[in-house]
Design brief:
Blueprint: E1 2-4, H1 10-27, H2 35-50, E2 52-54, E3 65-71, H3 87-102, E4 107-113, E5 117-119, E6 145-150, H4 161-166, E7 171-175, E8 185-191, E9 195-196, E10 201-210, E11 218-224, E12 232-235, E13 240-247, E14 253-261, E15 274-281, E16 286-292, H5 297-307, E17 312-320, E18 323-327, E19 341-344, H6 352-363, E20 367-370, E21 390-392, E22 395-397
Parallel strand pairs: 3-4, 3-6, 6-7, 9-15, 16-17, 16-19, 19-20
Antiparallel strand pairs: 1-2, 4-5, 8-10, 10-13, 11-12, 11-14, 14-15, 17-18, 21-22
Helix pairs in contact: 1-2
Length: 398
Amino acid sequence: MIRFDPLLPGWLTVLVIALLAASAAWTYRRGGWPALPRAAAVALAVLMLLGPMWVEPQRQGEPPRLALVCDSSASMARADAPGGRDRLDAARAALAAAAAAAGPGWKVEHWSLSDRLVPGSAASASGATSFAALAALAGERAPAAVVFASDGADPLPDGPEAALAAARIPVFALAVGGATAAANAAVRLDLASPTAFPGQEVEAVAVVSCSPGLAGRQAELRWSGPGAPTPATVTLADGLRVTHALPAGAAAGEVVWSVELSPLPGEATLADNRADAALRVVDRRLRLAVLEGRPAWDTAFAVRAWRRDRQLEVVARWKLGERVLVSGGDPAAPPFAGAAVVALGDDRLLDAATAAELVRFVAGGGGLLLLSPAGDQGRDGALAALDPLTATRGAAQA
């Protein structure tokens, strides 16, 4: 489409055109062929004064998308918003106001966020909030902007900020709810060891945490599982520890215990009022063979630590010059006979045949700990297959 943008003001443009036309008419009033090129020059000058330009017609495109995200986790059911409303109602009202303020120039989309991000307006509050799910908005059909209404949470390492920032999506947060912390209590069950022998006892610790508003209240702590103690009433305190010695049982296998804290009025969630812990009962000690061709302080420290573990039987071989010292086993036995795990330090203790046997041991499911680096060029011979990483000059090759 052609539009005109005159170089001079309108009145001056008309005056200049009139003067050019009068001058040309007076000069060539008798006519003749020389008047034609002069008339063309005058017409070109008039056209330039009018300033013609070509303008592309505007195409009607799709309006930008605006994503309205409502936090629908369990904490949003707490009724501490102005007017006695719960946080979810307050969030929906805030997002509705944002949609109205955006006007018809935006295509508004509603989303609900709890453990995952789903399209549609939030109907109820349940579950936990996975803020990492917001990163899904940075996909192929990314919105132009995001408005997120939530009662917030502690900073987490799985936040979506990097993905949204990389997609150049601005996020505007709307805070809802009161400033006081939600009332909640939780319990965790810790075992002193993940494994035990038949007939052994294992120390189990129930760790109770609670918000300040629940401290000092009483609750019942109930245990379940083999040899579980009877229920007991405890006075809540953040960091409270309740310890019991629990029997591992007479047979090998897995033993599971549970501990549960009775519900308290006003708790934000009951999902963390129960905890489980599993114990693996083994019928024999695990044999650990330590092969060290160059004695070092850190290897000796590790051997002393392993020997304090009642589930391990440690056999260590050390090479001192031309002598081989054996600690905790039969010197005449093969280096890792009957071992479940081999801890390999400097490999100068191994000859070619023993190194090949170690590779077959690992390939057959045996465990391996590498206690020393392989050097700049990696290990030699059969042991080269055991290196997870080979270092070269200026680079590392897997």
